[in-house]
Amino acid sequence: MSSYFNCAAYDDVDTTIRFDDNVVQHKEKALRDAINSNTLPPVCSCRERWGDRKCLGYCAGRENCPFAQELTSTKEEIYDEFQLSA
Known about the structure:
By secondary structure, this protein is α+β, with helices and mostly antiparallel strands. The chain has helices spanning 21-37, 53-57, 66-85, and strands spanning 2-7, 15-20.
């Protein structure tokens, strides 16, 4: 069984995002296990991270995620280097 919802991020694009219930249940279990063991859950897959875009601006847990923090730090370093060279 699958779940659907519409995403109206862009007015001119009608996007329907499909979630497989098995994926949702898998992520829920991983989060519950992490909470119960007081550890971090595994890093999301590249697909789940939307090629890291989710980590940089959309994920609610990015402030507590070492992977997202590293991405943010790297992005800031690249931006600083670009500014210095301009």
